[in-house]
């Protein structure tokens, strides 16, 4: 966690003061693939430069508060708006969905409470929205107490994926967008019952302190186009 935060800080310090038609977007790490695709598509049809950084929600909120360089945040809207950041209008992207994934070469765990399942990776519930969703799912499905000693808490969704690919865990909770992006590198995934965790509204929100407010508004307009909506849908949102 400390290494990730330090790396993010170095990225911010290395970035020049951004203004004009250059945009800096800070996004939850679990949405990297869709944000990269959207940014590349936008750059092709405009003269804008889109810079991107990633981390869990706690990390990107903290960096946005201290750097003064972030134009837009992408993540769960309620979580972001509960922070002390001065946030302006938002452009909805879609609904995030929680999935359970398992490593390549293994069968889908039929029962997480079975003795065959010893380690389950989850993002940090205090800092990552899918960690919070996983905690709610386990509590509401009546599995929390039985599984508490099996949980391996990590910083972000991509870190859960790393644990899955190295076979350090028997299962892990990630978001559907990440699962779609890495489906060829894991054994499989199954979507969790959405009624057992709070709805996850994923949005792109402009900061009131945005150094490039016009560029941010233009990107928000792009997110409503058919091109952008097709990209978003293809990534599980």
TrEMBL record:
State the SUPFAM superfamilies in the record: Periplasmic binding protein-like II
Q: Does the keyword Cytoplasm apply?
A: no
Arranged from A to Z, the UniProt key words for this protein are:
Metal-binding, Signal
Give the residues annotated as coiled coil: none
Where does the UniProt annotation place the signal sequence?
1-19
Gene Ontology BP, a term: molybdate ion transport
List the Pfam families hit by this protein, alphabetically. SBP_bac_11
Q: Which domain of life is it from?
A: Bacteria
Q: Which GO terms describe its molecular function?
A: metal ion binding; molybdate ion binding
> Which PANTHER family does the protein's record reference?
MOLYBDATE-BINDING PERIPLASMIC PROTEIN, TUNGSTATE_MOLYBDATE_CHROMATE-BINDING PROTEIN MODA
The UniProt entry's sequence similarity note says: Belongs to the bacterial solute-binding protein ModA family.
NCBIfam families, A to Z: modA
Q: What is this protein called?
A: Molybdate transport system substrate-binding protein
């Amino acid at each position: 966690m400390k290494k990730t935060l330090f790396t993010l800080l170095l990225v911010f310090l290395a970035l020049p003061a951004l203004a004009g038609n250059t945009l800096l977007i800070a996004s939850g790490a679990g949405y990297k693939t869709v944000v990269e695709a959207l940014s590349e598509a936008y750059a092709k049809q405009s003269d804008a430069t889109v810079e991107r950084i990633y981390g869990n929600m706690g990390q990107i909120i903290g960096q946005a508060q201290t750097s003064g360089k972030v134009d837009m945040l992408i993540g769960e809207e309620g979580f972001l708006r509960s922070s002390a950041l001065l946030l302006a209008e938002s452009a909805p992207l879609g609904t995030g969905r929680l999935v359970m994934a398992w490593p390549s070469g293994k069968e889908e765990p039929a029962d997480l409470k079975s003795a065959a399942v010893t380690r389950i990776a989850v993002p940090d519930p205090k800092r990552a929205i899918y960690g919070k969703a996983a905690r709610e799912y386990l509590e509401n499905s009546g599995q929390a107490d039985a599984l508490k000693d099996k949980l391996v808490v990590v910083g972000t969704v991509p870190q859960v994926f790393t644990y899955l690919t190295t076979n350090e865990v028997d299962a892990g909770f990630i978001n559907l967008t990440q699962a779609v992006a890495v489906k060829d590198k894991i054994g499989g995934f199954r979507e969790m019952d959405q009624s057992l965790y709070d709805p996850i509204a994923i949005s792109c929100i402009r900061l009131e302190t945005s150094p490039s407010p016009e560029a941010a508004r233009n990107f928000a307009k792009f997110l409503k186009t058919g091109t952008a909506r097709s990209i978003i849908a293809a990534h599980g949102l």
